[in-house]
Design a protein that fits this description.
about 400 residues, Growth Hormone, Chain: A, 15 helices, about 80% helix, about 0% strand
């Protein structure tokens, strides 16, 4: 039986843009945690560090869809270098201001400008879509990209933190900056696989997030991101509470591994059910899979629960991306995918912040109640999405 993932790379140039895209997307997972590690070392606390990282995250949530909108209108080759220079240059200024002990307001200013960095996950998916639009291979390609996103978040944070701790405080974000520069440069030089600019029509000129279908998908991804943020924070808190702080990294790896395995398997399936029905099933399964988290009392139990929860993450993301490819015009594809990725990122921040508050007031396991609320949002969004798109 032929390997469906090997079949993807028979397209000329596909290996090269996937590798370049992998390098260019690493800053997504490295920059926020890198800023926190850097500033907490330099300033001796987490208040300023968290605020600057939050500024960067919010700016990214606002700017990334706008950058992608420009890409849809003018092409990756024209927009990505400018966005990378603006965002990367601002990030470099954050590092310089930290090194030179500049006033705190400069950190917030340049952290906000750094949010202009492009969403490379959406750019790579746009190239796959141009290669395999209307083919079953596209779902396999989206499955691969979901797994690569997981790998990015497995490797990125420990690499960023490790460099900042072992070498010098700015080392983690600096490595993220270098990876973006190399990755984006290599990516835009590959003109043969760059998607063409599709014709725009006047009735498609408004904000894409105003479309109820895209909004439902984004809200569901935001709720899924909230669950991820909860798992991240509660895992660390529970591991510290039980005197095994290193076990948190094992728990998070188990969560990612569960998602990666299911994503790879899902990408090989040829399902007869239409995408809206798959979306409903995946959303319901994702919501129900959070229930075992409420029963967790120790690290082994947490590992089993998050592995089970992670099994439905990648398939839901894959189906969501496939749906947005169907419901938005080709001239708005990159923007549509970026809104979903943005929703996921916002959700992670919401989950981390809200579960952190719960933990401080009611103990480590209480954070999982935030995940249960997010699961309810996933469930409602899945039902609404199915009714609208089915």
């Amino acid at each position: 039986m032929a390997n469906p993932y090997a079949e993807l790379f028979k397209a000329p140039g596909s290996r090269a843009f996937v590798l370049a895209g992998m390098l260019a997307r690493m800053p997504i997972s490295m920059t926020g945690i890198g800023l926190i590690t850097m500033l907490s070392q330099v300033h001796g606390g987490y208040g300023l560090a968290g605020a600057v990282a939050a500024t960067f995250a919010l700016a990214t949530a606002f700017c990334a869809p706008q950058v992608s909108r420009l890409v849809d209108r003018h092409g990756q080759g024209r927009v990505l270098p400018a966005a990378a220079i603006l965002g990367g240059g601002a990030l470099l200024m954050v590092l310089l201001c930290t090194r030179l002990q500049a006033p705190n307001w400069t950190l917030f200013l340049f952290a906000a400008l750094a949010g202009c960095m492009p969403s490379m996950s959406a750019m790579v998916r746009a190239r796959w879509t141009e290669l395999y639009r209307g083919q079953s291979k596209l779902k396999t390609a989206f499955a691969l990209e979901s797994v690569l996103d997981e790998v990015c978040f497995i490797l990125g944070p420990p690499l960023s933190v490790g460099l900042s701790v072992v070498l010098f405080p700015e080392a983690g974000p600096l490595m993220a900056l270098l990876l973006m520069a190399v990755g984006v440069s290599a990516f835009v030089l590959q003109r043969q696989t760059e998607p063409p600019v599709h014709e725009h029509h006047g009735h498609h000129g408004g904000w894409l997030i105003a479309s109820p279908s895209v909004l439902i998908l984004m809200i569901l991804l935001m709720a899924m991101g909230t669950i991820v943020g909860v798992v991240d924070v509660v895992s660390v808190a529970l591991a510290q509470h039980q005197g095994q702080p290193a076990a948190a990294s094992i728990v998070l790896s188990v969560y990612a591994i569960g998602s990666c395995l299911s994503g790879l398997a899902f990408g090989t399936l040829k399902l007869a059910a239409p995408l809206p029905r798959q979306f409903l099933y995946c959303g319901v399964a994702t919501a129900l899979a959070t229930l075992p988290l409420l029963l967790v009392v120790n690290i082994p139990g947490l590992s089993v629960a998050v592995f089970f929860s992670g099994l439905f993450f990648a398939p839901t993301l894959i189906v969501s991306m496939a749906l947005v490819e169907q419901i938005v015009p080709p001239s708005r594809l990159t923007e549509g995918m970026t809104w979903l990725i943005t929703g996921l990122s916002i959700g992670v921040a919401i989950g981390a912040a809200s579960s952190g508050w719960m933990i401080d007031h009611f103990g480590a396991p209480s954070g999982f109640w935030v995940a249960l609320v997010a699961a309810g949002v996933v469930l409602v969004s899945a039902v609404l999405g199915y009714r609208r798109l089915g």
